[in-house]
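Please check our next protein.
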Amino acid sequence: MPGRRLPLRHGTKRDRFARLVRVLMVLNARQEEGISVDALAAATDVSRRQAYRDLHALEDETETPLWNEGGRWGLMQTALLPSLSLTVHEAMAFFVAARLLAKGIDEQDADFTSAFLKLAAVLPDRLHEHVVDALDQLAVGRADPEFRRNVQALTQAWIDGRVVQFEYDARAYDGTRNTRRVRPYLIEPSALTRGLYLVGYDEERKATRTFKIERIRSVSVTPQRFEPPERYRAGSVLAAAWDVIGDQAPISVALRFGPAVAARVAEARWHRSQVLEAQDDGSLIWRATVAGPLEIGIWILGWGDDVEVLEPPELRARIAAQLERAAALYRGAGQGTAGGRESPGAAANPAGRARVREMKGNDR
């Protein structure tokens, strides 16, 4: 797409990302011959000085490997994977994935940014512009160099089949911080928490556990190798999970959705095991088998009084207790944090507080 020119808008982050995409496109089109800085400046509608800045931004911020010889710049052969020949509809699939990533990740990460830049460089004009918008969303996320280093180390260990050791800091949730030795089986994004999770075998606990990567500290990749369980794939190990926690005992859930939301619920496939039973009064019985009550409980609470838990009794009691505490807050039963005190409802219900801690804690 060498003929595409971007509008002259150099004052915002969005314009900067669009410009870097254009630089990447020009370098990729020139392949081994490279391009002079003057020619690059002309092709991207910027000054010679700005062209230099953009080249260094690609190197330093997105770690795109470039070569520079005799006044010419180009992409190293290792900079990009072999080109894909995509149909418009296949390109649309990549665009949707990019938008989901932008919505689901709240960390600034040079690898994500670089991936978006390279994706935008090969998409049709209309999709290209929207991927640049997605870069804007990533740019306002938190910059956390340790998070990026940990993701890179865990990714490499996962690919190489090596055991990792790290500190897991869950003090904000259950007061613990301890060392874990884990065999990485999977790295999975969460739609619920906008975080990344490591699923792996905890050697000390001798069980598969789920760890939020934002809580992982000081990752070290050990020389110890392992073989993952046969056919261990996200689609199988997380088959019962509502989101990313698949290591809890499965429970059979039955919910009744009221007529006001029944059609909306029926429009989506919320879980692969779901079964829908339309009722004569316009309500909907929704059934599924999921891993534990933690994640699905969050979804249930989001429907407010338009849903009733029918089964299992333990989940019904859990949701009822949470709604009662919430109702007490809104009825003014206590001042809560606004008055600097714990609400009377919470103080009178230590078992309920324990359930809240359980939901917030675990490895997740």
Q: What stands out?
A: Residues 250-360 form one domain. The chain has three domains: 1-141, 145-232, 250-360. The radius of gyration is 25 Å. Residues 136 and 180 are 36 Å apart (CA to CA).
